[in-house]
Specification:
Number of helices: 2
Helix content: under 10%
Radius of gyration: 20 Å
Distance between the termini: 53 Å
Mean pLDDT: 82
Length: about 350
């Protein structure tokens, strides 16, 4: 298994808030994240650069979070032994610890890149795609259990399971005190493998939970343009060479790239265009989310893209404004499905920044 995606994963997330004098109230939640290496072997996190100087006296640490499998079984090389699916509902014992504002946390679960609904701790809880909870004490390890019937998998399959934490998922801008998510709703992932000793059973809850609000879904390609590279450039210039090892994405709504928020119509059609490009040969399953729930059309709720050199993968879709509430958190999560083909590269989950789609203020 690719050691950049495995298993005994304890991740530390440092959330840096920018407290510089003169910031407007609308920017009060701007933050960035600086993941650090795990303290355990065979684990890693995506090395996202920190554009801010953390030694600056005008910065402060808002919180940290770590999570991973509880008491995993290891082989002689110290790698996690695959989980076993033997039919019915399966359990994954897990643990999380956090401090500061990171104690509000939600988890998403994916099998082979597809969103997996689960129960939290007990069979009495309902199936949901994300369970959100508040940890009570700083840095206190909290055990819990994912309980679920896999939505995919045949006997003999060995499929990746991806567990993704979302930092402060309960936050949503109100367009009065704040208009941006800042560093909130950033993600960290842990990964393992499930060996299927039986076929996955049918999960009625999966169809009940589906939000079939996407229409006119179209997958296409277009060439990488200089304008697109310029749009991705910040403190570091993005060029054709950058695309050999890194992955980039861009989301536009109704024809324009939206960064923090966008006022949508109260009725009619909203057009979403998601573009992904970079690292040739990598394949991703992409899922659109509103308020942490995957969006689907009659053909499914995840869309596969295969990145090729010099090209952009485009997913276009329409959403009826009537299907949305007044305030909606929108993002796209892309799970790599062939990361093991690139053992020397960092091929991990991609999430777009959360975008507020709102219908106006009272």
């Amino acid at each position: 298994m690719n050691t950049k995606r495995v298993a005994i994963l304890t991740i530390l997330l440092t959330i840096i808030a920018i407290l510089a004098a003169g910031c407007s109230s609308n920017n009060s939640n701007i933050a960035t994240t600086t993941p650090t290496n795990s303290v355990e072997p065979d684990s890693s996190v995506k090395a996202t650069g920190n554009p801010f100087d953390t030694n600056n006296p005008n910065t402060s640490v808002l919180g940290r979070i770590s999570h991973g499998f509880a008491n995993p079984q290891l082989d002689k090389q110290g790698k996690m032994v695959p989980l076993q699916y033997n039919g019915g509902e399966m359990k994954i014992n897990y643990r999380v610890a956090a401090s500061g504002k990171a104690k509000n946390v939600g988890f998403l679960l994916f099998i082979d890149g597809q969103p997996q609904p689960y129960k939290f701790n007990t069979t009495e809880r309902p199936y949901e795609y994300m369970h959100i909870f508040d940890l009570q004490n700083d840095n206190q390890e909290t055990p819990f259990t994912f309980m679920f019937t896999p939505i995919t998998g045949k006997k003999g399959d060995s499929l990746h399971v991806t567990i993704v934490s979302v930092y402060n998922p309960a936050f949503i801008p109100d367009m009065k005190e704040n208009s941006s998510y800042g560093g909130y709703q950033t993600t960290l992932e842990a990964g393992g493998t499930i060996l299927f000793n039986k076929d996955a059973g049918e999960l009625a809850a999966s169809s009940v939970l589906r939000q079939e609000v996407l229409s006119n879904v179209r997958l296409s390609k277009e060439p990488v343009t200089q304008e697109l590279l310029d749009n991705q450039s910040g403190l570091e210039a993005v060029n054709q060479e950058s695309l050999d090892k890194k992955v980039y994405s861009e989301t536009s709504v109704d024809g324009n790239v939206r960064l923090d928020n966008y006022q949508i119509k109260k009725s009619g059609t909203i057009h979403i265009s998601f573009k992904m490009f970079g690292h040739p040969g990598t394949r991703y399953r992409n899922t659109f989310y509103i308020n942490h729930q995957p969006l689907s059309n009659p053909n499914g709720d995840s869309f596969e893209t295969a990145l090729t050199k010099g090209n952009v993968e485009v997913i276009d879709a329409d959403i009826k404004a009537e299907d949305l509430g007044d305030f909606n958190t929108f993002y796209v999560i892309s799970i790599p499905v062939n990361a093991d083909d690139f053992p020397n590269d960092v091929v991990v989950l991609e999430k777009t920044p959360s975008l507020l789609l709102y219908k106006g203020l009272e």
